[in-house]
Structures are given as C-alpha cells and as structure tokens.
Write the structure tokens for this entry.
Amino acid sequence: MEENRFCAGCGKQLEPGVSVCPYCGREMNGTAPAASRPASTEAASRRSNEERDSPAVGTGEWFVVLLLLGIPLVNVVLLLIWAFGGSASPSKRNFSRAVLVFLVIAFCVWLASFAAGLAILGGNPDLERRILELLGR
Ligand SMILES: [Zn+2]
C-alpha cells in the first residue's frame, strides 16, 4: 500500500518507501500520507503571504508612475523612495531598482564618452579648432 508522500521539511514529492528525504535530509516518520499533509514549504507560504499583502500594481497606478517618472529630479527622488523606502509593493520596488541601475550605467557610459571626447580634443588642437569653427557657423 505505497502512497505518494511529500516531505514535511521541504515539500518535495518523495519516492515510496524512503525514510529520509533526499532533498533536505529530514527523516520521515512514515505516518503522513500526502492527503493529510499538503505540500507547502515555508518559502511557498512566505511568497503567498507577500502576494496577498501587496496585490499587483494596477494599470492606472503604472500610468501615474510613468507620468511621475517624466518629471526631472522628482523621478529620481521617487525611484529612490520606491527602491529603498520599503513601502512600495515588491514589483514597483524591483522596477525602481532596475531603473536606478540602468540610470547609473547610462550615466557612467555618458561620463566615459565625455571624458574620451575631451581627451581626443585635448590631444588634437587642430581638431578642436575645426569643431569650434563648425559650431560657430
Ligand atoms: Zn525534504
């Protein structure tokens, strides 16, 4: 009368007859068939708690978010609040962090190309003069 069982420690399905879970090492007492013990791990219940506490960000809210992100300086402050303030929903928090990382990378690339441009111009007075003439026309 072998039944499918689930580990009480990690929730994974176990081969019939095993006495120790091969995934997490927890010992089975053999008295817990699958029906009486739903396979819910600690991590899974934490995840569902988080989803219940913070429902998905709606389309209207994302619209407002994108509007606000169009405002200079205000957008950076809002991104910092959402990314590290702890009050924003997980999806908005992750989005804000991704945007901030993107902005930092973009700024570094801009800075590097600006510095490279200065270095090239600095080493070529003739080129600098020609570009200034072009801009002056
Ligand atoms: Zn296990």
Notes: The longest strand covers residues 5-6. Residues 32-37 have pLDDT under 50 and may be disordered. The pocket of zinc ion is lined by residues 7, 9-10, 12, 21, 23-24, 26 (CB under 6 Å). The helical segments are 42-53, 59-69, 74-84, 90-123, 125-136.
